[in-house]
Automatic annotation (TrEMBL):
Comp. bias (Low complexity): 8-23
Protein name: NAD(P)(+) transhydrogenase (Si-specific)
GO MF: dihydrolipoyl dehydrogenase (NADH) activity; flavin adenine dinucleotide binding; NAD(P)+ transhydrogenase (Si-specific) activity
Source organism, top-level taxon: Bacteria
EC category name: oxidoreductase
Main subcellular localisation: cytoplasm
InterPro entries (UniProt xref): Class-I_Pyr_Nuc-Dis_Oxidored (IPR050151), FAD/NAD-bd_sf (IPR036188), FAD/NAD-binding_dom (IPR023753), FAD/NAD-linked_Rdtase_dimer_sf (IPR016156), Pyr_nuc-diS_OxRdtase (IPR001100), Pyr_nucl-diS_OxRdtase_dimer (IPR004099)
Gene name of this polypeptide: sthA
EC number in record: 1.6.1.1
Domain FAD/NAD(P)-binding: 61-382
SUPFAM superfamilies (alphabetical): FAD/NAD(P)-binding domain, FAD/NAD-linked reductases, dimerisation (C-terminal) domain
Lineage: Bacteria, Bacillati, Actinomycetota, Actinomycetes, Pseudonocardiales
GO BP terms, alphabetized: 2-oxoglutarate metabolic process
Keywords annotated in UniProt: Cytoplasm, FAD, Flavoprotein, NAD, NADP, Nucleotide-binding, Oxidoreductase
Length: 525
């Protein structure tokens, strides 16, 4: 009697299991961590047409997760740790999600390759002409990204495998609210699985304006940049969001003449304006031109290059154009209507505080639910969704979350900005530390880095920390920890930091702000 797939239309071997090889067969029942080994249950083996016996699950899996990015992975593993039968679905070449394959990991690895090969972080010490490699090729850069992507995919597969999460390769679409059809890359690779709970973690894809002809060669979206065949001599970046500015700074470091076109009047509006000014100064120094308050209306491609036309009539010639003008939720392939769900006009799903969609047993996490659309938050959303689905108690995400922008130089912050404190009439004082005044700053040749602390003049609590320069995205966590514990600036004044380190910037900035607050007291404020 056939036992599997329950409602499938093809052999289950059309899906592959982690880490490689054919599907490992029907799902097993797992013991929760720490509990005695369980005798393998045959509950899933209910033959087609048989009535459900008491205690028998009517579904193939307790949880099916769609999308294997950070949100999906953590939802799947959290479910597995609770002893649930879990499957995760993604395309064979997208295991690890946008994060590993086209987004965070490749872009951050590319940045490291650029920083290393151009030798730019050492130029303060060895001179403006210092290079590790004179003629950097695209393969020098992408060899490193491919290596890291490969390793990261292995890590994801191994984690899923050791947690006994079945990896089903293909594109998922709803058949009904509890049933998902998985279509593999080849004809006949199609089958259907059902689950008590579903987590949608399908992320986003670059938004592509319909009037622009993307040719994957000269006119690219931000995912396709990783397939460039040569470093463009000149590049137009459309959209000065985080993606656009990160790539603009990498190509500028490689020597491309970059023009950034942004329809708003400012960029990175959520960051500290002083730090954004420092970044703009640095990028202009690298021959980046900014066109703020300008909208791209047309891009023409010829044999020799591209011409980008702006609404103002300006025309910009460049070897290539990269669009980074926002992203769109990846929901179009899901057949949401069959699940009773609708996406908004940007393909995103709405959820409640437990990441539950309006269909109660279907959750959505990660970029597909919109802001903040970061890898770190997506992971925690996935874990919390799985916990909620199976009644495991958990605390909500901490309100205080850091932002890291991997431009060259990098930016990071946590807590309030000066603008926010001013508009909500919170009295504060600023403490500054410049890397060039720190021994470590001199040793590493970072003359422009800075740390800015915002401190309440009422109770001396730390309200915000803003960093620019080497290690900013790591150093921010010191301030985050102090703020999360409700700490005051005095903690930083009294703490002994290793010397010489960049962390010492906290002490310098803390002393600076306490001196200012003391002056206020001294002058009778
Ligand atoms: C260029 C770039 C740089 C970034 N840099 C950073 C950074 O430095 N730090 C940071 O925190 N965040 C960064 N992000 C954002 C980060 O990558 C995302 O927040 C994160 O990847 C979102 O995770 P997710 O769980 O939503 O899934 P994603 O990583 O978006 O993956 C979704 C997966 O779902 C799959 N999928 C979609 N539809 C289906 C379907 N129907 N069936 C099966 N599978 C499907 C896709 O194939 C994909 O693999 C960056 C993003 C980009 C694009
Ligand atoms: N370091 C990080 O944490 C990191 C890095 C990269 C991406 N991300 C995530 O990815 C998400 C998407 O980033 P993004 O930069 O693509 O999107 P975004 O929406 O933040 O930025 C798009 C920008 O393009 C501009 N724009 C749109 N159409 C335009 C046009 N025709 N002409 C000129 N300008 C135009 C918009 O005004 C906007 O400023 C971010 O919200 C972020 O969460 C995070």
């Amino acid at each position: 009697m056939p036992t599997w797939p329950r409602r499938g239309t093809a052999s289950p071997t059309s899906c592959t299991a982690a880490p490689a090889g054919p599907w490992r067969g029907p799902p097993r029942r797992r013991a929760a961590a720490g509990s005695p080994p369980r005798v393998r249950s045959r509950r899933h083996r209910r033959p087609v047409g048989c009535a459900t016996l008491p205690g028998m699950s009517e579904y193939d899996y307790d949880l099916v997760v769609i999308g294997s990015g950070p949100g999906g992975q953590k939802a799947a593993i959290a479910g597995a740790k609770l002893g649930k039968r879990v499957a995760i679905v993604d395309k064979a070449d997208m295991v690890g999600g946008v994060c590993v394959n086209t987004g965070t990991i490749p872009s951050k690895t590319l940045r490291e390759a650029v920083m290393f090969l151009t030798g730019m972080s050492q130029r303060e010490l060895y001179g403006a002409d210092y290079r590790v490699k004179k003629d950097i090729t695209i393969s020098d850069l992408f060899a490193r990204t491919q290596h890291v992507i490969g390793r990261e995919v292995q890590v994801v597969r191994a984690q899923l495998h050791r947690n006994q999460v079945d990896l089903l390769t293909g594109t998922a679409r709803f058949v009904d609210p509890h049933t998902v059809a998985v279509q593999g890359a080849h004809r006949g690779e199609h089958h259907t699985v059902s689950a008590e709970k579903v987590v949608i973690a399908t992320g986003t894809r670059p938004a592509r304006p319909p009037q622009v002809d993307f040719d994957e060669e000269r006119v690219l979206d931000s995912d396709e940049v990783l397939a460039l065949e040569e470093i463009p001599s000149s590049l137009v970046v459309v959209g000065a969001g985080v993606i656009g500015i990160e790539y603009a700074s990498m190509f500028a470091a490689l020597g491309s003449r970059v023009t950034v076109v942004e329809q708003r009047e400012r960029m990175l509006e959520f960051c500290d304006p002083e730090i954004v000014e420092s970044l703009k100064f640095h990028l202009r120094d690298q021959a980046v031109t900014f066109r703020f308050g300008e909208k791209v209306v047309d891009v023409k491609v010829s044999e020799s290059g591209t011409v980008t036309t702006l609404a103002s009539g300006k025309r910009i010639p460049a070897a290539a154009v990269m669009y980074s003008a926002g992203r769109q939720g990846s929901t179009e392939e899901l057949n949401l209507a069959a699940a009773g769900l609708v996406a908004d006009n940007r393909g995103r799903l709405s959820v409640d505080e437990h990441y539950r969609t309006p269909v109660e047993h279907i959750y959505a996490v990660g970029d597909v639910i919109g802001f903040p659309a970061l890898a770190a938050t997506s992971m925690d959303q996935g874990r919390l969704a799985a916990y909620h689905a199976f009644g495991e108690s958990a605390r909500e995400l901490a309100a205080l979350q850091p932002i890291g922008i991997y431009t060259i130089p990098e930016i990071s912050y946590c807590g309030a900005t000066e603008a926010e404190l001013t508009s909500s009439a919170v009295p504060y004082e600023v403490g500054l530390a410049r890397y060039r005044e720190l021994a470590r700053g001199q040793i590493i040749g970072d003359a422009y880095g800075m740390l800015k602390l915002l401190v309440s003049t009422v109770d001396r609590t730390l309200l915000g920390v803003h960093l620019f320069g080497t290690g900013a995205t790591d150093l921010v966590h010191i301030g985050q920890a102090v703020m999360a514990c409700g700490g005051t600036v005095d903690y930083l004044v009294d703490t002994v930091f290793n010397y010489p380190t960049l962390s010492e910037a906290y002490k310098v900035a803390a002393l600076d702000v306490t001196n200012k607050i003391r002056a206020l007291d001294r002058f009778g404020g």
